Amino acid sequence: MRRAFVAAAATLALVLAGTPAQAVAAAPGAPGIGDPYYQDYGNGGYDVSHYDVRLRYYPDTDRLTGTTTILAKATQGLDRFNLDFLLTVSSIRVNGWAATYERQGDHELVVTPARPILGGQDLTIVVTYQGTPSQVDVNGYTAWTRTPDGALAVNEPEIAWWWFPSNDHPLDKATFDISTLVPNGTEVLSNGIMPRPPVQELAGWTRWSWRSSKPMATYLAFLVIGQYELRTDTAPNGQQVINAYSDRLGAFAEPARASIERTAEVVEWESGVFGPYPFEAQGGVVVPPATLGFALENQTRSVYAAEFFRRGSNPYVVVHENAHQWFGDSVSVNHWKDIWLNEGFASYAEWLWSEYTGEGTAQELFDFYYNVLYPADDPFWDVIIGDPGAANLFDVAVYDRGAMAVHQIRLAIGDDAFFKLLKEWTATKQYGNGTNGQFQELAERISGEDLDGLFNAWLYSAGKPLVVDGGQDGRASQARAASAPAEPVSFQKIKDSHAQAATRGK
C-alpha cells in the first residue's frame, strides 16, 4: 500500500510541476478524420460535444462577424490540433489561454495551445473571426450563396468552413446553439427550436436564436437569412413545426406552400415506416428562385430550391428530404463512400409514398426505371453506388439505382423482414453512423438470407444487374425480365424531387 501511495504521490507531483513527461505524451492531432474520399476533412485528437455560434450579418455587404465556442474532449495528448475553417481569424483561446494559429492547406487551421492538452481533458475553444463568405473560395468554389436579400449557408458535403470553425465530418456530431444578429425586418432560419423569440438587442438590430438538442453533423447545420414569411403550427406528435417561405417566390409561392405545409403529415407517415421521429422539431424553408440548385435535408428543417415547385405542388421532394431525417441525419454515413445509405433510402421513400397514395406501386416504378428509363447501354449503370468515388458522390445513379437496389432487397427478404429492417437500423444506429457492410449484416441477420450476390450486383458491380422475382412472398428466385408498364402518374414528380442532384456539393 505504501509503494502504491508513494507512486501516486510522485505522479501528482510531476503533474503539478508540469514536467516534460506531459510534453512527451502530447502530439499533433491528425489533419483528417480518416475519410478515404476527403482525407483532410474532419480532424483527429478531439471529439466535439457542442458548438455555440454567435454571428452578426450585414446583408448589404455580405459581411459576417462571429465568435464560435467549441466544447470538446481531447482523445489523446495534444500539443496542437486542427480546425476546418476559411474566414479570417482574429483570436483563438483554448481553456482561457490565448493560442497561436496558422493556415495550412486550403481549409485547415492549425491551433497551438499555450499549454499541452492531456488525453481526456475537457476543451473550451473560442474562435473570433470575420469575413465576406461569398468572396472566399477553395479552388474557385464557394459553398456560401448570396441572395438578393441575404444569404444561404446550405450545402453538402462542406458548408461549415464558410461560417463556423469545426471538426467537419459526420463522424463527429454535436449539439448546437446558433444565434445571429441581423437588421430589423430580416428573418433568420436555422435548425431545431427557437429557445426564445427574436429580440432587438441594438437600435435597428434583432437577434434570432436556434437550438439543436440532438447530435448533428456539421454539414447539416444551416443558416438562411433574408425576407421570409414564417408559419408556425403543432405536429400530431406535439412538436413545433416552423415553415418559411421567401417573399420573392412569386408564382412558386402557392405550390410551395401546398407541398411544405404537408411536412407534419409526411413525418407522421414516415414515422410509421422508419420508427419514431428522432428530432425535436419539424419544418422546411423555400428559398428565392435562382439561388439554390437542389434541396438539402438540414436536420429538423430541410431547405428547398423554389424550382422544385415549377410544375405545381411536389410532395415527393418533401418525402425525400424528410426521409433523410432518419437516413442521413440520425443515422449518418461513417465515410462518404456510404452515401447510398442516405440517397437510396430517401429515394425509395418516394416510391413507398407513391404506393401509399395510390399514384403508382414501387414495383411499377422499378419496372419503369429498369426497363424504360435506363437501358443496358446507359452509362448510368457504370456507377458503383456502394463506393461511387468523390466525383460521383451525388450522381443520379446513387439516387435511382440506389432506390432500385432497395427494392431488390425488399423483394429478396419479403415485406415483413424488410420493414423490420428499416426500423431496427434506425433504432440501433440512432444519432450515430453506419456503413453499407453493417446494413447488409443486419439485413442478413433479420431475414436469414445470404445477400452477398444481391449486394455485389447492385452496389459493387458495373453493368445492369439481373432482378429478383418477388413471387408470392417476395422471396428471391430466378431472374426475370419485367414487362414495361405505362409511365406512372407520379413519375415526373418523383424525378423532380431530385432534379439536378449532381449539383449537391462537389
UniProtKB/TrEMBL annotation:
- Which protein, by its recorded name, is this? Aminopeptidase N
**What does the record give as the reaction this protein catalyses?**
Release of an N-terminal amino acid, Xaa-|-Yaa- from a peptide, amide or arylamide. Xaa is preferably Ala, but may be most amino acids including Pro (slow action). When a terminal hydrophobic residue is followed by a prolyl residue, the two may be released as an intact Xaa-Pro dipeptide
Q: Which Gene3D superfamilies match?
A: Neutral Protease Domain 2 (1.10.390.10), tricorn interacting facor f3 domain (2.60.40.1730)
Q: Which organism is it from?
A: Virgisporangium aliadipatigenens
The reply to whether Signal figures as a keyword in the UniProt entry is yes
Q: What is its EC number?
A: 3.4.11.2
Q: Where is the composition biased (Low complexity)?
A: 475-486
One Gene Ontology MF term: zinc ion binding
Q: Its GO biological process terms?
A: proteolysis
Record keywords: Hydrolase, Metal-binding, Metalloprotease, Protease, Signal, Zinc
**The keyword Nucleus appears for this protein:** no
